[in-house]
Design brief:
alpha+beta
Length: about 90
């Protein structure tokens, strides 16, 4: 539960779920105001918690893709309605 209260954890989970296998740059594009270090830390936290998988390819330039695990997909399904509600509330004010 502590992880989900961290800044951008829920949003990153939903973004990766919506994009599918996603590269760091694709995820970063969806967050205009987040710092690179915060996003990197959150991705590492979600991988460590078993919500995301991280696949690194032996290519030049290096390529890394993130994807929801089964556990992460279950969480995303539960978070989507909550985040939609929160966005609607922001639009009201």
């Amino acid at each position: 539960m502590d992880l989900l209260s961290r800044q951008y954890a829920m949003q990153v989970t939903c973004v990766v779920g919506a994009i599918g296998p996603a590269r760091y740059g694709e995820i970063e594009e969806t967050f205009g105001e987040v710092s690179s270090s915060t996003l990197s830390t959150r991705l590492d936290d979600l991988v460590e918690a078993g919500l995301l998988s991280r696949e690194q390819y032996a290519e030049i330039p290096p390529r890394v893709e993130y994807e929801l695990t089964e556990k992460g997909e279950e969480l995303r399904e539960r978070l989507d309605p909550l985040l939609e509600w929160a966005e609607a509330q922001d639009d009201c004010y």
